[in-house]
Design brief:
The chain is an alpha+beta fold and 211 residues long. It has a single domain, classed as Nuclear Transport Factor 2, Chain: A, CATH 3.10.450. Helix content is 31%, strand content 22%. The chain contains 5 helices and 5 strands; from the N terminus they run H-H-H-H-E-H-E-E-E-E. A 5-stranded mixed β-sheet has the order 1-5-4-3-2. Strand 3 and strand 4 form a beta hairpin. The chain is globular and about 45 Å long. Keywords: Hydrolase, Signal.
Length: 211
């Protein structure tokens, strides 16, 4: 797997911003950032209790990606069997995303009216629908899918506390047909229990030029 350290100016800015979430400032003072609808930023002292000091490896990123894909498939399976898929999705978000750690930057694929999901409830709405505040959401995870495959173009983890992955992932519809190709950028931090949590997630359909 190749690791790229140049050519990602936008990602570099994101990388540095996220690094501030998990690193203690030299003078011990945390910076408070106001984000409408997002969780309040933690002080540096609080961050020290929430985040691990261990570096993030590429292998951990790949494993976190597999867990994310398996979680999407699992939500769909519960939905297909008539189970409590909302509960399953809530547990998935709690496990995979860092909404309880601080701000999460989440821009999902199939969102055009309210593209950004800075809160737990907003993310849950995207995955399973049913939230009147987000009427466009039909429930991405309950289409459902039988497989999710990540294909990384690169992983940047030279900051140690933050890792960023970019590439394509492919969703196999349970109803049959071709895999759905989607572009992604994920940023990960590591919590105090050594679990990778998503701090930023942006995905979109590939550009389709007019014929």
């Amino acid at each position: 797997m190749k690791v790229f350290f140049s050519g990602f100016n936008v990602l570099a800015a994101l990388f540095l911003a996220l690094g501030a979430m998990s690193c203690t400032s030299p003078n011990g003072n945390g910076t408070v950032v106001q984000n409408t609808g997002a969780a309040p930023q933690k002080s540096s002292e609080e961050n020290a209790l929430l985040y691990s000091d261990e570096c993030i490896s590429e292998l951990e990123v790949v494993e976190a990606q597999k867990q994310w894909g398996d979680g999407i498939v699992r939500i769909g399976n519960v939905f297909s069997k008539g189970g409590d898929y909302s509960k399953e999705a809530a547990e998935f978000i709690q496990e995979m995303y860092g909404y309880d750690l601080g701000s999460v930057l989440f821009k999902p694929t199939l969102a055009s009216e309210r593209q950004f999901r800075p809160s737990f409830d907003a993310a849950l709405s995207y995955f399973v629908g049913g939230n009147d505040a987000y009427p466009e959401d039909k429930g991405f995870a309950i289409k459902p899918y039988t497989n999710v495959k990540f294909e990384n173009i690169g992983i940047i983890n030279n900051n140690c506390r933050v890792a960023i992955a970019m590439g394509n992932y492919f969703f196999t519809p349970a109803a049959g047909g071709d895999d759905v190709k989607v572009e992604y950028t994920f940023a990960y931090v590591k919590d105090k229990n050594g679990k990778l949590r998503i701090a930023a997630h942006q995905s979109s359909l590939p550009y389709a030029p007019n014929p």
